[in-house]
Specification:
With 102 residues, the protein is mainly α. The protein has three helices and no strands.
Length: 102
């Protein structure tokens, strides 16, 4: 029984630190996305905003997990952000498509 508790504790600790490392990497990606969004043309800015939306949504979803911080409202916000952000990116890409559609 003690071995099972030790392995469970080890798994929880490993998950926490892996999620923490992922959030640090997501922060770096988010800062890069902001830089891309602020420098460039419309399509480049769209790409930066889309990446930032995805990074923010995934980070909010991680924060909402009970094993980490258990912030209840973050899960709903993350799901809404990911769905609305994806739909907005697709609509914008369709509207500003370059090329002949015929």
């Amino acid at each position: 029984m003690s071995e099972t508790a030790f392995l469970s504790n080890l798994a929880d600790t490993a998950f926490f630190w892996a999620a923490f490392a992922f959030m640090v990497a997501a922060t770096a990606a988010g800062l890069g996305a902001i830089r891309v969004a602020l420098k460039g043309e419309a399509i480049t800015s769209l790409m930066g905003v889309s990446v930032f939306t995805t990074v923010t949504g995934v980070s909010l979803y991680l924060i909402s997990l009970p094993e980490l911080f258990n912030v209840g409202f973050a899960r709903d916000t993350a799901i809404a952000l990911l769905v609305v952000g994806s739909i907005g990116t697709i609509i914008f890409a369709r509207l500003f498509r370059t090329g002949d559609s015929s």
